[in-house]
Amino acid sequence: MLRPVLDPSPAEWISSRLGGAFGAAGRTVPRGYAAYARLCHPAERDRGGWASWREAAAETGRRAHGAMQWHALVGSPDPVNLTGALWRGSPPGRGTLPSHSLTALLAVLGEHTSASEAWFCLWEGYDWADEATLSREHLDAPRLRLPGRDYLLFSGPLKSAAELGWRPRPNWFEAQSPNLFWPDDRAWCVATEVDFDSTLVAGDEALIDALLETPGLEAWRIESDTSLAADGDRINRLP
Fold it and tell me: Which superkingdom (predicted)?
């Protein structure tokens, strides 16, 4: 079960390990790990169902690679509004992994830690992060403060990552994957930045290799200095 944590000190190790040039993966997920992966959030087709970025690239005549940007992949010069895009479905969601992707990720992560407990960070800026879903004591607690974002901290078994979210209606749960989470032994760390349409994983080589082979996840090996900025796609050039 997910538990609120009122003291952010167990998460303060992260700050000193973030850095790099603008857009670098290492500004979002901690540096110092042996290997890194980028998990591209799936897009929805206009006729229903999910599509990987590889599939979208094949359909738009572009090339899929680890530093690709969705707008470049679908031929739009506009990274926000996607005007003129060749893709007719919905773009990948930003700031959260779909539930089926999070489930697949958690299964792999659990095989690559000896810890039974994990830590989870939730960005404080979600409009549903209020007294309807969180305790007053938790909302008043000190935040984990990282460059550009402040977070509420939770702890619990790894599987409790799927418990974050809110209920717009009693019978409707809207899941929110953690913006940052890691096991107690820090064997790996996962980051889903609020504005990103991909999730970053830092860990050892065995974990990253496993993610690359996991059905239901589209994983690409990257480096901590790989640029994920809007202009970071150097292969799919736009007019």
Answer: Bacteria
Cα–Cα distance for residue pair 159/46, rounded to 1 Å = 32
Residues of 188-204 as b/e, b for ≥16 C-beta within 10 angstroms?
bbbbbbeebbbbbbbbe
The residue type at 69: Q
Model pLDDT, residue 180: 98
What is the token pair recorded at 83?
Answer: 């005007």
Question: In whole angstroms, how far apart are CA 176 and each of 121, 131, 158, 169, 220?
Answer: 11, 17, 15, 15, 22
**Quick one: three-class SS letters along 10-74?**
HHCCCHHHCCCCCCEHHHCCCCCCCEEEEEECCEECCCCCEECHHHHHHHHCCCCCCCCCHHHHC
The pTM of this model reads 0.97
β-bridge mates for residue 146, sequence order: 149
Identify the segments of the chain with pLDDT beneath 70. 239
Alpha carbon distance 126, 191 (integer Å): 16
Q: What whole-number distance in Å separates Cα of residue 168 and Cα of residue 165?
A: 10
Radius of gyration of the chain from its Cα atoms, rounded to whole angstroms: 18
H helix intervals, the chain? 53-60, 70-73, 99-109, 136-139, 205-212
